[in-house]
Amino acid sequence: MASLIEDYALIGDLETAALVSRDGSIDWLCLPRFDSDACFAALLGDEHNGQWRIAPTTTEGPVSRQGEVSRQYLGDSLILQTRWQTMSGVVRVLDFMPPRTDAPVIIRIVEGVEGSVEMETLLRVRFGYGKIVPWARRMDHAIRCIAGPDSVCLRTPVQMTGRNMAHQGAFTVRKGDRVPFVLSWYPSHLPPDTPTDPEAAFDATTKFWSEWSATCTYSGPYRDAVMRSLITLKALTYHPTGGIVAAPTTSLPEDIGGVRNWDYRYCWLRDATITLEALLRTGYTSEASNWRQWLGRAIAGDPRDVQIMYGVAGERRLAEWEADWLPGYERSAPVRIGNAAVDQRQLDVYGEVSDALSLARQSGLPFDKHSWSLQRQLLDFLEKHWDEPDEGIWEVRGPRRHFVHSKIMAWVAFDRAVHMIDLGCPGPQDHWRAIRDEIFAQVCDKGYDAARGTFTQYYGSTELDASVLLALEVGFLPPDDARMISTVWTIKRELMRDGLVLRYTQPAKAVSSGGRADVDGLPGAEGAFLACSFWLVNALHMIGEYDEAVSMFERLLALRNDIGLLSEEYDPRYGRQVGNTPQAFSHVPLIQAALNLEEHAAHHCRRPAGRRQGRHAPPSGQAGSAGALT
């Protein structure tokens, strides 16, 4: 059975990533790319779907008493150290993937610290998302597993024995011993890669992360959290193209045992501006430039064909299908490969792209006539379609609606275009300003419920949606606008559960009995989408509630696992992280909130720095308290 979602750590080589559990098992790995087939898929099934475990033997330990197993990343790196205290000694395992130069390589070094510890390892490779049993043979002091286009090679001094469609080994580690395991992938039609020196690779990986982390310009009180989030963001970056995946996993459930299981191993346009902002504000100009260039390549072409997401190299066909041989994480089925939301209409992405290109220009990133021409074509398309319904930011699988957030982002698209004229780009500024003002008037008229004092989820609805908090961040309304202040307090009062912000109003029947949700067209409920809570931190800060913003931010930090990682959601019903992990859309707003609380590098914000407008009390009759995290 797979571990708890928060019990997994991340290692990666900037082209793919693996999840390592607290008990020493690699339960998820796709090779050679983030979106390739998994060769270890125990995360979504069981050990028979592929895993690689290294741990003290069952009779030796680890002892179950608290504190007997601990782990940490070595400094500001992606090198994981897991430490076991057993009855006979102490041992630690170093897990890492060297930044890719040729073939992907996973290295595990078992190091004796005290006494003598008996260890065991089990390697069970299953290509094709846990379905294909490879042909294994021993050649040149290595074990090679081949099936179809894939091949992996394990090199280690430990004697491995084939048994039950797997390879097992037992060995003893004494103080000072360092026992290496090196697993590499290569196309099956090519000869094996040149053997990797594990110790040299360890030194090179340590140096890489040390030098990369030293670039960070932020040194405030939340540096550790910000740095770990930046490292995670770097690990989710596909180095050859600069594309950044939302998460390295698929189908980890938003609702344990339910059907809300999606493939997040792709690049969402919606992440463009906040990711660009986070990188620019912390000194990672090269990564920001690469991400902006990926964005330009991905959306190039007819504006009608712009998608909400793409593959890491800009692929557009991400057809969704189900791996029906996998039972799913804790029986959460189906397991989905690909994402059908790629075919949805989400008009907010045009605003995200325009915002990102505008931020890149004002920040001094390379800009050319092609980028501006492309942006203008997107605006021409949006001018004809902004007032149509869409599926919105949450990719609902229900009817299209006039979502308020989508309209706000359409406003952003034209607002940023107006700003680009001020930066020297040619264009019909007055015309775009008129469209911007028309959108603004419509949103304020149809998207605001004056009786309740809040912007709603879509025109004519009474439901709330956390995404309208972004109206402050993008500058749609100023922080001292009474409508925004009232909206912040209403969301805090009505959309929070156990101190966390839900994405949108969930019908009581869906929460209590797993009934069909009214808006998103799916059965069951879900946890709290963590990005929404960080949005509320930013909104509270902007309206002047600095102390409350800090308090909420620090409560959110406490939800990270023991090595600083966050998944997509946190479910207070079970006290667990849920959804795909680690999630860029959780870590990026964490970075953003930390920087905003100190107004660090505010000149690279997508909006003017969050200025305190004086402390605002909740509007009359609207209590500010919404409970505490448990």
Features:
630 residues, alpha+beta, Beta-galactosidase, Chain A, domain 5, Glycosyltransferase, 2 domains, 15-stranded antiparallel β-sheet, three-stranded antiparallel β-sheet, 15 helices, 30% helix, disordered C terminus
What do these coordinates show?
This protein is an alpha+beta fold and 630 residues long. The protein folds into two domains: 5-188 and 196-213, Beta-galactosidase, Chain A, domain 5 (Distorted Sandwich), CATH 2.70.98; 223-604, Alpha/alpha barrel (Glycosyltransferase), CATH 1.50.10. Helix content is 30%, strand content 21%. It contains 15 helices and 28 strands. The strands form seven sheets. It has a 15-stranded antiparallel sheet that branches. α5 (285-299) packs across α6 (348-362), α6 (348-362) packs parallel to α8 (404-422) and α13 (530-542) runs antiparallel to α14. The model is unreliable at 509-517, 608-617 and 619-630 (pLDDT under 50).
CA gyration radius, whole angstroms:
25 Å
Ends: how far apart? Answer: 27 Å
Q: Main sheet? A: 15 strands, antiparallel
Low-confidence stretches: 509-517, 608-617, 619-630
Total domain modules: 2
| Fraction of residues in β-strands | 15-25%
